[in-house]
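Hi, does anyone understand the following?
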Amino acid sequence: SGLGKSALLEYWQRLIDPHQVLLISVRCYRQDHTPLRLLNVLVQQLVRLLVELTDEFWIDPVRRHSRQIGRTFPQITQLVPSSRNDEPLKSLGPDNAAARRDASLEGVRELLAELSQHRPLTIVVDDAQWADSDSLDALCTWFQPNNDRQHGLVVFAVEQDGDSDVEPFSLSCSSTLSQHIVMQPLADDAGRQLLRRMSEQTGIKPSPA
């Protein structure tokens, strides 16, 4: 905690060209215990991202999958008004929550895959130690190296000393293309040098400890 991982992520994301890459940046919170909370906020952020794009390549993929995704993530339906020409969904029964969830997850996977054919996709998850295991498992499975339909990158930032029950990289994320970067605290001398350099650049003197 306090190592600056969030600040580092924000700086790195500012270097990404939004005209070349679809960047979905989300954060998980300790107090959120809703099911599929990571994918829920991811879909919510995706909706905000797509409506701001001037390039409308996303409309057809969203139209194809919005009703399927909307069974679990209704915010996706904000992007495409309902149409009489929409193909009806197969009835899953009123009590078949697991089937509805699986259908929605499949819809999200297909939508991300189709979007990534137009622009590489980058998903950044800060404080991923508070994410739910089902969402993490789904993301890791979708972005396996043998999946030639998903063009993208998923970045998980994890606080190692958090008391979460979830270990993101112990799920499906182990692959030859995954890389773990461990941030260590700055040594005292390095911290003082950084403060001195920032003070010289900004003209602001740090307060004495």
